[in-house]
Design brief:
InterPro entries: GK/Ca_channel_bsu (IPR008145), Guanylate_kin-like_dom (IPR008144), Guanylate_kinase (IPR017665), Guanylate_kinase_CS (IPR020590), P-loop_NTPase (IPR027417). With 200 residues, the protein is α/β, with parallel strands linked by helices. The protein is built from 8 helices and 9 strands. The longest helix has 21 residues. The protein starts with a strand and ends with a helix. The structure holds guanosine-5'-diphosphate and adenosine-5'-diphosphate.
Length: 200
């Protein structure tokens, strides 16, 4: 199963995702994205992102090495295809944390993926979170808030919306969604071969 989490910058995707992966029974794999943005203080190459040049990113697009990609406030972000394919082939579920345009590309290519949109309680709270995080200048924060308005309108294209009021609540909701989606997947895929064997 492919699980896709989107939401505006500053809503808490990274925080919620890290809390989700800190749970001892989390058994899906996080796909590390590639980006041309500069690393923030404390971010590590190959852990938070694969940080690459614009030229390298465009080369990867040309070679068909991205599952999806998008330009977001002057930088490229994308999901390397190889890791996702390899992990799904080995029978493990994959978790993507990506923005809305990339998510819609995934929806077109992998219609069975599960799409979750994380929303802020309101836009003022979103702005506070971005300011408090302190990783971007005010002009970039404003560009991200502007983008948030159009991103929130895309929420209707998702299977689930989760409000990130408290991190624990959001994590619990996402865990419930994944658990129930797994049940659905096993229920609609019984072993037909076996069922049909005795049916002459
Ligand atoms: N399409 C796409 N978007 C991504 C990918 N990785 C991250 N993003 C999104 O790019 C946007 C900007 O990410 P970033 O600069 O790390 O800011 P942050 O989300 O505020 O921490 C966010 O909406 C991310 O979810 C990816 O592989 N593909
Ligand atoms: N539920 C929450 N309540 C209050 N602050 C939050 C919550 N979730 C995240 N934050 C804070 O908001 C800021 C943005 O969170 P982050 O995970 O970096 O968002 P994103 O990855 O969506 O850009 C961080 O400073 C984080 O500590």
């Amino acid at each position: 199963m492919l699980i896709v989490l989107s939401g505006p910058s500053g809503v808490g995707k990274g925080t919620v995702r890290k809390a989700l992966f800190d749970e001892p029974d989390t058994d899906f794999q996080y796909s590390i994205s590639m980006t041309t943005r500069q690393p923030r203080e404390g971010e590590k190459d190959g852990v938070d992102y694969f940080f690459v040049s614009k030229e390298q990113f465009e080369e990867n697009i040309k070679n068909g090495e991205m599952l999806e990609y998008a330009k977001y406030v002057d930088n490229y972000y994308g999901t390397p295809l190889n890791y996702v394919n390899k992990t799904l082939d080995s029978g493990k579920d994959v978790f993507l944390e990506i923005e809305v345009n990339g998510a819609m590309q995934v929806r077109a290519n992998c219609p069975d993926a599960v799409f979750v949109f994380l929303t802020p309680p309101d836009l003022m709270e979103l702005k506070h979170r971005l300011i408090n995080r302190g990783t971007e200048e005010l002009d970039v924060i404003n560009a991200r808030i502007k983008k948030a308005v159009s991103e929130i309108k895309m929420m209707r294209n998702y299977d689930y919306a989760v409000v990130n009021d408290e991190v624990e609540n959001a994590v619990a909701s996402i865990r419930t969604i994944i658990r129930s989606e797994r049940l659905r997947v096993t229920r609609v895929m019984p072993d037909y071969e076996q069922m049909l064997e005795g049916d002459d």
